[in-house]
Amino acid sequence: MPELPEVETIAASLRRRIVGWKIDKIEVFLPKLLRKTDVAGLRKFKGKKIIGLRRRGKLLLIACENDLFLLFHLKMTGQFHWTIAGAARETHTHLRISFKGRRRELCYRDVRKFGFLRCLATPSPLDCEELRALGPEPLEMDGRRFPDLIGRRKGRLKSLLLNQSFLAGIGNIYADEILFESGLQPLTSASSLAGKDVRRLWNAIQKILMRAVAAGGSSIRDYKNADGLDGHFQFYHKVYGREGLPCSRCGSPIERLAIGGRSSFFCPRCQRKK
After folding, report:
1. What is the β-pairing status of strands 68-73 and 50-56?
2. pTM for this structure?
């Protein structure tokens, strides 16, 4: 699933192109893609100018004139790509947006079909149920709030980092890399952390996410940004997907354990449980 760095990269690649463009038509070829939206709702976007585009957590919000918004969640395999207007629709392409006076069309492809689009007509899109439950943005939050935020939690660190109501946008890849960077074991309880541990964790969150955004995210399976380019942060992974390989710090084999049905990768020597 695209996480914060990947969705941020997608948002940046789309923002450079489509802000200021006017939507001509939105075509949906997979009805279940639409959440709390019908085809009639899509017609409201005809002729509307795109005035902004941002990421919130792992979701993408496209703002149009007249308080209209397109909210996308890419889930496991959602991707955007460009085609020439009138070109044959590719397999697994479930949505197509054409723009007035433009020869390129924006398409949404999703092999697993888990992603969704919701159309919003509101001056307060962040109040919709998909967004209002999200926690703070880790790259926008004041770090002075973090000790109090984590101090109210008692869960295991890996599960906590994956909890979108705690911090928005972190998934399996970056949770593992953050915990390695901070030297904390995935099963460590948040309530056991000393002040220095909390500071190390916060610094690791900032460092890993900023580096991953700068590298365009991680292309492990089929992730590409909207320009069709791979990310490069997978070449800097220290633990994720590296079971049995030597730790880059100490040489110990990287281990894997399952937490809540998700694989977690860590170094048993560099990341000791408290």
Report:
1. unpaired
2. 0.96
